[in-house]
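Hi C.,

You asked whether I'd gotten around to modeling the 239-residue construct. I have! Everything is below, sequence then structure, no commentary in between.
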Amino acid sequence: MEEQNGLITVFCKNQDLAVSLSKELAMVIRKQQIRPAHTQARLVELLKSSGRALVVYVTDSLDDRERMFVQRIINRRSETKLVLIAEESEALAAWNIQASGFLPLPVGQRRFTSLCSRLAIELHLKTPPHLTVKSTRRLDVINPRDMLYCKAEGNFTHMWLRNEAKPLLLSCQINVVDKRLEHLPAFERIGRSYIINLNAVSGIKGKDVTFFGSKERLALSKVYYQRIKAALLASFAHG
């Protein structure tokens, strides 16, 4: 999938914050220019000349007029995705206007760049990353979407993949894998032993986690069960 022309813009009346967030996005979306906007008029101007658009909208709180403005941006066309960054109290408003994501102030860098990176991929503004991993016998290039979960095994890591009967045995510790996946919000570290692709989880039955397109079941202890349940709920809440 090739990157295609479109717009990624950060709207914030605080120019310094807008520039700072734009630079953070530029670090993870390297081939796409990030264009800050400091006024609503400038944002509208940018959107008029764009097709696909990812809009990061930063404000303390939404009054009725601003809520209507943001709603018009979201309703502009199906190829527009908007991330609302505001005070925690605006989370319900973000859900009501069907924002693609919500992040509370102050902005956490990892969650911010991860969410925007995922949405840019969905808009074809960023090429989905692949992961090159070294197993005990060879090098493998993995599409992260095919990963179900990883489990620590001392100095090694077992990686279960969709449509594979046996896991890969990686010749590295799970901390190394976690570091490689930190820019992808779907992957959640559960305790010391597991990394789970939340997008691959189809359900939790008893203490077993099931996955889309796979007969694999992951049996978890009560503690890990509670952690993955909380992670799934948090993932749903933040889009």
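If it helps when you're writing up: The chain has a mean pLDDT of 85.

Thanks,
B.
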